[in-house]
Each structure stands twice: as C-alpha cells, then as structure tokens.
User: Fold this.
Amino acid sequence: MLPRFVGRLGAADVVTVANAVVGFLAVVLAFVDVQLAARIVLLAAVLDGLDGVVARRYGGTPVGPHLDSLADVASFAIAPAVLAFVVIAEGFDIDSTAWSVELAGIGLVCGLFVGMAVTRLGLYTAYDTADEFTEGVQTTLAATILGAAVLAGVTDPWLILGATVAFCYLMVARIRYPDLLARDAMIMGVVHVLAILIPEAAGRTFPYALLTLGIAYLTLGPLLYWRGGAFASKVYGNA
Assistant:
C-alpha cells in the first residue's frame, strides 16, 4: 500500500520537505561545528526560494502553503535559535552541558526567538494576503543574517545576542517589507550559494557580502525598495 502523500504532493512540496530536513541537520550540527551549521542554515534559505520557483514552473498543491510554514519552523525558527544559543554560550565561555543562570538566560532569549518566529509564520499564513509586501521581518531573512554573520566570523556574543533580541520584536512588528524583485532575488541566491560553497574564499568575501545585503534590506528595504507592480520572487519569501 502506497503512502497517502503519493499523488498529492508536487515537486515543490518535495523541496519544501527537504528544507525541513536540512533545518534539523543544522540543529544537530550546531553543537558540533557552528560554521557548518551556519552553511546548512543558508542552504535552507536557498531551498526556501527554490520551492517557490519550482511551484511557479510546475504548479503548486493545496498542501504546499501549510508544508512551507511547517518547514520554516524547523529551518528559520529552531535552527537559527540553536545556532545563536551555541555561539553566544561559547562566546561567553559558558558550559552548555551544565545548567547555570547565564545559560538559562541565553536559552530564554533564543526560546523567545523561536516563539516569535512561529507566531510570525502563523500570522503570515492566516492574514498576509498582499502580493507585494509582508509585515514584519521575514524569518528567512533573520536566519540568513545570523547564519551569514557566523560564516563571516562576526561571532561576538553581545552582537549575536543583541541581534537575536532585536529579531524577536522585528519579526512581529508592523513594518512593511516589500518582496524582492526577481533580478535581486537571483543576485541574492547566487551570493547565498557562493557563501555556502566557498565561505572562506578571498577573506570570507561572500559571507560578508550576504551579511551586508541582508542588513541593507533589513534597514533600508521598508523605506527605499518599493517597486509598484513589479514581479517579485520568494527568496526572502514572505515567511
């Protein structure tokens, strides 16, 4: 007897499920190799953009949007929170295997990140119907900035802690973020892939470039990026 998903899931759904698997791998690897875990988080962001491309090419399914949000919980809520937890704990030289007040505080902040990311994903699925913008920082963008920072060697625990706290608010803020144009989404995708494949090339140029582009969109996008009626791509998706 065939599994019940046979004939119900499309090619884009397969990519989405792969995204969830990659998110789990990033969580596991964070406790072994934070650099590799950061690369896996960025790979999840690439897959998140790819499922939209595949859906437009081959068509989506009714289950697609639900799978997308569920996969994003693994890859862009839990995975970056665990990555931040490990980087912050190591940066403050806190033993992550023994309970302490400091460790509990870091865990609380990272847990709040997960909670706000899940809330943002739920709100997006239920209420965000606009074609050209979304409210609040996309979970994909938050994860990308954290992952790129780690790959670029920007691992000061205070900076990562501050960024994690800031994203807890920004993901559920009422700030409107416009979708990326297809051209810019392609550029971001190429930089993503290069940062994953050759993160140490030319003095970590590609992770730095990805981090710079991500922060530029985070800070300037709501004010300067609007393009009326332009086709947008789902690399920073809306989730």
In short: The longest helix spans residues 64-91.
